[in-house]
Amino acid sequence: MKIALLADIHGNYHALEAVLEDIQKQQADKIIVLGDIVFKGPLPEKCVQAVRALNAVTLRGNIDELVAHNRIQEGFAKSEEHAAALQKEMDWNRERLSADDIAYLAGLAFAHEEQLTEHLALRCVHATPQNILDIVLPTEDEASLERMFAQSRARIVAYAHIHQPFVRFFQGKALFNTGSVGLPFDGDPRSSYALLEAEEDDFRISIRRLRYDIDGAVRAFRGSGHPFAQSVIDAIKAGRRPV
């Protein structure tokens, strides 16, 4: 079985197009989306429509939850200014999504477990199995990483949220992050997604990095009225977190 896992699209439809085209070339048997379809990028509505058309297992990211419920989660905003900026961008996104799209985001699942083979199971979450806002970095010690496997028989865990792709093996288990389709934070502006191939007791995880039409994504901001367009443009060009 070959599964493509992608996440953190963040309204960047041009990046999503490139990833979906590559997934088709790789002949993946299944696609799993680990959340954060909207926010930051110029085309949230097109991204939601494209993901919905996949009929794939799709999880709720923290930003999907925020936009769907028009509510900033407790602890997410770091200051009053940050809260005001989140609300402003949340309003911009909600104006572009249909009521049906918003209901779709609100109805996405928190987590998913998949039996890959008789002996291999995969757990998928956006951030952690405990909380949609928690941050797990690739440098954390093994004891901290164990929470990703808590109360599950899965030997493999896939997650997103930090926009930094990596694969780490420990104690016979594997933890990996898909990286971000539309808004990488690791200094590499190329889109990122993961391929998981499993057969009997064996599996292989690979991270794929793809160039996409960044100029097209930048042009899509023109006339959009996006409240923080330049900040996002600078971020997608640099592969860094928006400031």
Characteristics:
five-stranded mixed beta sheet; alpha/beta; 243 residues
Description:
- By secondary structure, this protein is α/β, with parallel strands linked by helices.
- The protein has helices spanning 13-26, 44-54, 62-69, 80-96, 99-106, 142-145, 214-219, 229-238, and strands spanning 2-6, 30-33, 57-58, 111-115, 121-125, 156-159, 166-170, 173-177, 191-199, 202-210.
- The strands form two sheets. A five-stranded mixed sheet has the order 3-2-1-9-10. A five-stranded mixed sheet has the order 4-5-6-8-7, with no helix packed on it.
- Helix 3 (62-69) packs across helix 5.
- The mean pLDDT is 97.
Sheet having the most strands = 5 strands, mixed
Mind telling me the C-alpha Rg?
17 Å
Secondary-structure-based class equals: alpha/beta
Question: H/E series, N to C?
Answer: EHEHEHHHEEHEEEEEHH
Q: Given the structure, what is the number of helices?
A: 8
User: How do the strands of the widest beta sheet line up side by side?
Assistant: 3-2-1-9-10
| Average pLDDT for all residues | 97
**Principal-axes shape call:** globular
Strand percentage: 15-25%
- Give the proportion of residues in helices: 25-40%
Task: Count the E strands.
Answer: 10
Q: Which segments are poorly predicted (pLDDT under 50) over 5 or more consecutive residues?
A: none
Distance between the termini: 40 Å
